[in-house]
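Notes to self after the call with IL:
- keep both proteins in one doc
- input above output, always
- annotate only the second one for now

Protein 1:
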Amino acid sequence: MGYTEQRADVPGAGAFGRGWVLWRNVADVDGPQRIMPDGALDLMVHEGRFVVAGADRTAVDVAGTAGAVTWGLRLPPGVAPALLGVPAGELTGLRVDLADVTRVPVHRPDRPWRLPGVAAALWRQAAPDPAELRLAASLDRAARTGAAAREVADDHGLSERSLRRNANRFFGYGIKTLTSVHRFQCALRLARSGTPLGEAAALAGYTDQAHLTREVRRLSGVTPGALTA
């Protein structure tokens, strides 16, 4: 199995997000692929279909076959509800056909690398509000710092109720969950780069290595060692 990602330019939208490709080698065994939560929604070409992947609260197993390739476009904060016309919370934990959530004509993909063109068509139709996108980006940055929900709300001039509503609309869940997912991903990147688990836990914002282990088990279903082996 392999994975790679790079900057993706969507016509009319500039530096839009991250494009990625996930492939399974021909020698791999058919079966589910475990996908870790990352606090983002994606547009994908998966097994010949355009698919929207909602944000995940915990790891999910996605069916796959040997030799299959999935193309994806990770959407920036706040972009998904603008493009698709539905709050991100309605897609949390789901994988649905793009045609089921948008009125933009979507044909069976014959060239998966044209995915940014599909995103561009959605962008033109949606004409996202720049102020909304700035708010979503700012909330996402705050979640990455580990700030408490009340602090995030105060810093953005929002009530905690309004913060919950906006976070669910932009990300698919509240700031507390988004923060835990970002912290998990930060620790995972550090550990996979060779940082000892105790140090990775401290740098990512966990109280100690035991806290990291509990959260990794909760979010991924396995131990930190299993994820970094």
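Protein 2 (the one to annotate):
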Amino acid sequence: MTVPASVDDGQKPLLSLRNINMTFGGVKALRNVRFGVLPGEVHCLAGENGSGKSTLIKIITGVYRPEPGAEIEFEGQTFSHMSPVTAQAAGIQVIWQDLALFPEMSVAENIAFQTLLGRWPRFVNYNTMRETAVKALARLGVTLDVDLPLKEFPIAQRQIVAIARALVGEAKLVFMDEPTASLTQSETDHLLGIVHTLSASGVAVVFVSHRLAEVLAISSRLTVLKDGALVGVYPTTGMTQSRITELMTGKTFDQTLRVRDITANPVMLDVSGLTRKGQFEDISFTVRRGETLGIIGLLGAGRTELALSLFGMLKPQSGTISLDGKPVRFSSNRDAIGAGIAYLSEDRLSLGLIQPQSIADNLVISSLDRITSHGLLSDGSKRELVARWIADLGVKIGLQSDAISTLSGGNQQRIAIAKWLATDPKLLILDAPTVGVDVGARAGIFDIVAKLADSGLAIILISDEVPEVYFNADRVLHMAKGRIANRFTPRDCTLHAIEAAVYA
């Protein structure tokens, strides 16, 4: 349903796009899209993976050239298309999800390096670079040691460095692509405060996020795309997360608690007194067959380190692990896989999948022994295995031989899950399985999780977002500073009670 909304509102737009069309290989990525941003506005660009958001941003920033007939108006000047140089000169900047920074270089060099770009070589004045960096950070109300290498700073502060670099480029419009995907709640709150600071100083911000609570908290208007077309432009006042989800997907999603009695199910995993100094201490819990155990906590709480210890990649100093009633000690993740433990990494892009490799190769890489005969891979067995899991998990693909990078984030995550299900595990550990995945794809992933649990698979669900574990887990452990701080049963407590404990 398209709701007409003007970008005028009595104020002349900073950016106005009309008749934007883009086709890739016969597929219409954008269809007659219009888009507008007001000066100093915080505007959200929303849509499922594959809706056309990134394509639209790349057209605005000159990476892609739209089809003839497009009109791009910026500060009253009209273009049929922009080049990257034109866009940057006009004051349009993008902070991509990967930040595109240089870890080995100092903070000052990262912030000020664009001031040195040009046709001719020149001497580097490091004092000037430092002054430039300090001034840019001061505009954000932030103080950092600009002489330290960027790699020594956590992701939240690297985000700030990327924003400061945009300000050095005299930014008038900044696109932020999933800026909070890897941040804790407190870090997210700080970043949103910086966005407010930018807006108050007259810099317009286009915010792209799958976290709908942030969308409602930070933006004044919302543009929704679906399948490359404009759904509508809406004020966020009075808007709800469920309404945004419905606009993005055309579907409604019911969030109901999982109320099941699994107390009679045998224990699959029994962890007692597990300790790895400096990361977690005295961790004890059980997971039953068919149970989904949620683990929540702020970044640095020790959740991933605990998961890696269960998966044999980190060795605990003390404590015991029993799987299916038998004590286990793993020397490597190979031992853990052999025992029936599967681990879906929180970093899908670099650890979970091999982006240049095919969909089929990614899916079978953890279960090669199942498709090998006399030391040789069986192409027929491989095709059958891949076809089975693609069908079972409802993955949308073109060809099995296509690179995994051609799939949307949600479908990539389904392949990552299928890769481990193909090993026939007893315990599946899901570490932040919805990072960078849109709302519709998230619902699909949790449908899969529910079906796997109902089939008897024991699951550990680690998440940064309390609602994910509240609505999808039978029990919830709250980790803080390497210890289990609280234990919750969702059907016996409120969502607010868990959020209050985690974010206190």
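Annotation: Confidence is low (pLDDT under 50) at residues 1-8. The first helix runs from residue 53 to 60.
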